[in-house]
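Task 17 of the worksheet. Students: predict the tertiary structure of the chain below and write it out as structure tokens. Keep your answer in the requested format; marks are given for formatting as well as content.
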Amino acid sequence: DLPYFARLLEHLQNHGLPVPAPLHDNSGATLQHIRHKPCMLVPRLGGGHIHSPNLAQCAAIGSAMARIHVASNGFELRRQGNFDAGWREESFLRVGHLLSQNDAALMRQQLDRWQQHEQHGQPLPRGVTHGDLFHDNALFDGDRLTGIIDFYYACDDVFVYDLAILVNDWCNNAAGELDGQRYAAVLAGYQEVRTLTAEEIAALPEYLGFAALRFWLSRLVNACDPAKVGVAQKSPEVMKELMIRRMRGAATAPPPL
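Model answer:
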């Protein structure tokens, strides 16, 4: 997958986004080998991680995500995502039996709901997505966005799903509920660059639940992976509770547009 990531990062850098595009050697190549393993050399970006984003930072990251989505119109390469319907079903078979009866039934219900939405719902705009734009994958100098990193889940997917992943991490209050001001700031920043369609606006609350479900499931898979024994893991339970809140909110609260 390295050629895809190299080309994507160069493409986004050419569109003015602060990403770690690979460096070229004297012959113009970006992909190298060290001890028979492929590698890329990328610059270190300035700035630092934030722990509690303010409204200006929320608007900046929303705008940057929209610029990624818009830039995908001119990018010719395609990559299938790691977390599609097939992965979700396979992963449920791996971890579903380890859950309580109630949790397994809840996950099965929401997986079916997601599949029904994909198969029978309104087609939504799609293109290149980051897929993992949590606040620890962004760098800031004050309120200025200086870097977006970790594109290794980037793929072709639904734009509003990518936006939902971002909102779920950037727009929580201390209780885990959506912070309306941060949520509005992210969406305002996004729509300064790319206007959401009516169908995307209608689907966003439900995709907040789908995004939380994806990370509940992926964290469970990681927790069961023998290769990751001894590696610090993020809590699946946090994402389960987030999914329940988002699914509850999907029926009651439209996006703050």
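Marker's comment: The beta strands are 31-34, 37-40, 126-129, 138-141, 144-148, 155-158. The mean pLDDT is 93.
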